Amino acid sequence: MRLATWNVNSVRARVDRIVDFAVREHVDVLAMQEIKCKTEQFPFAAFEEAGFHVEAYGFSQWNGVAIASRSPLTDVETAFPGMPGFSKSGAPEQEARALGATVDGVRVWSLYVPNGRALGDPHYDYKLDWLAALTGYTTDMLAQNPDLPLALVGDFNVAPTDADNGDPAVVPGFSTHVSPPEREAFAALEAAGVMDVVRPLVPTGFTYWDYKQLRFPRNEGMRIDFILGSHAFADAVAGAAIHRDERKGQGPSDHVPVVVDLDFATPDDDDDVPMIFG
Question: CA 200 → CA 36, 149, 222, distances in Å?
């Protein structure tokens, strides 16, 4: 299985480019974030004509998540247990930031973690609460089924280490994405039983570059898009890539796809598969 995640920054604006990438790179499962449309506005036909099953979840021109898969998607959920909502006033409302589905035995969540906006902003507290709820869900899910191949993929809006931040405008102590509480929340999620399965195989590279200030030509980006997998998922990872070239050309997203190849060995051929994660 080849699994990819991509913050597409408007699926309707880039549908041809997205489908072309999925077909050209032989992607089996593509998790998308920031689709920026209502569910009924999603360009289902373009994906279905290319041979994909699609589930999408969106409310408006903001947020939104989707999963396209060569195999059928089952057990679809549009929120994980405990997922908080947000409102500046009144009762908090859940946003379209999570979509879970099972594909060939792998539980995949396409996740668009809240941005946080600014230190001290209510949206920053919402971000931390959202990550804490995701950690609680992950802990409970893996306690119930330790052998579950679980993949939490998407735009986490956190650069967990200094090496993941090359944007001079993003400064620890003054900016979101790199603050100690955000990094601690990301570390707590990993401690719940998932690991970054890309960085061990791709030791350098960013996944996001701001459109402004020539950030991409200067390679002043950030690594904020991740594929986090349970042990059962990580043990099947046979390769990984960050597709930097997708930031080039006409009308790109400000994020690029992150891809992993999975090889779920049967008991008879375990000895023939290299174990990357022990």
Answer: 32, 19, 17
